[in-house]
Fold this protein.
Amino acid sequence: MALVENAYDVAQRLTRDMAGKVQGLLIDGQRVPALSGESFATINPATGEEIAQVARGGAADIDRAVAAARRAFENPAWRRMNANDRSLLLYRLADLIEQHADELAVLECLDNGKPWLFTKAVEIEGSIKTFRYFAGWPTKFGGETLPVSPRSGARILNYTTREPVGVAGLIVPWNYPMSMAAWKIAPAVAAGCCVILKPAEQTPLTALRLGELALEAGFPAGVINVVPGFGEAGAALVEHPGVDKVAFTGSTAVGKAIVRGSAGNLKKVSLELGGKSPQIVMADADLDAAAASIAAGIFFNQGQTCTAGSRLYAHASVADELLERIAAHAAAQKIGNGLDDATTFGPLISQEQWDVVNGYVNIGREEGAQVLAGGRRPAEQGKGFFFEPTILASAGPDMRVVREEIFGPVLSALTWTDPEELVRQANDSEFGLSAGIWTNDIKTAHRMAEAVKAGTVWINCFNMVDPASPFGGFKQSGWGREHGRAAMELYSETKSVWVNLS
């Protein structure tokens, strides 16, 4: 997609348009204030300044959003819409996202802080790809006939159908707001569900704009509702008896709370949770390629990525050389406001997250790790929530910085010589989301991929995702898989039909 406008000009226009008015919730096809009348400020992480006021949705607003989604789900205009027409709606929405790519990328940059060009290339183009991919599923997702063997010897026709699960509550995080919304909305509506999207309170703006574009694409009112708010709104959505399924991306701690909250009506739950992904480097690895990808794997999006390769296990024979090369990549990052085309590394999402990351670096120091690079706030960046890309060398397997998810640009580096001990340490985690393996030996690559307990394993690459390939975690990294047919199955029920033909 071509560069259309200067990002600063787009940002000025967007903030001017939002100034002096509260950005309303999107319920039943209308932008409306919260019933409480309350609003909250969404903050630019690069400056610490307010971007806009956003209506603060609460339990009462969740009630009316669920009611709107239920009406839309039962309305023949949606429930009886043929598969081809549902596909066309998804294609139209993808086209509209593409038409508004610059606007959406700058809006995300303002709200999240990541460089706008990266946002456009990764989040916006990725969202377009996701909607177009799932636009192909409504005409291909169905049941099958089965060769059953009834005891009576009767002639039986048995077939299955796939039906939408109903009303889905979608809760997405602040690190990839647009992408995560697309990952959940696209398969949900492709399967025929109606949804309530609850974006993170830190990043509500692109979710609201996406909801407006869905209406422009022709989605009936109530099919896609967007309710920004804080924890009470999310809890109300999870516990609501009118919600049939909850999909959540976020921390493992909140994921466990969602499981507890969903028990009232035993709603279906899918969870994409935390990670502490190992990067495993063999002695024969291409160190230039490994260093570049490992740096990108931990420093992209300022390390605020569930799959961030935050644990480095480098063979002792190459560890020093590899760390030098990763440190060079860290030093080469251009830290600054994400609206600047030259910026490659933006701020953390908030002062709260900055405090968390800084606290972990201090813990690492106290535990004996060596700060090889970074470890502080860049003095020249003023009020923004910036934290330098950081490498903690000489880390030990029992250190908190090795075992706990930091969710920031902090790489903890360990060395190894014994392959069996390497596998044990790599798997010695409550998480199992992803892993990277670096080697030029094909047998070693496949054996390590088999041995590592993770939902995604990348060999000589990292952080490759595609809407056709299932994504999710082992252990406490989640339940279920997003993308591909697996995602369609998350938002559907299987019905078995028996017909006596005797």
Notes: The CA atoms of residues 58 and 232 lie 6 Å apart. The first strand starts at residue 22 and ends at 23. The chain has two domains: 55-273+478-496, 278-467.
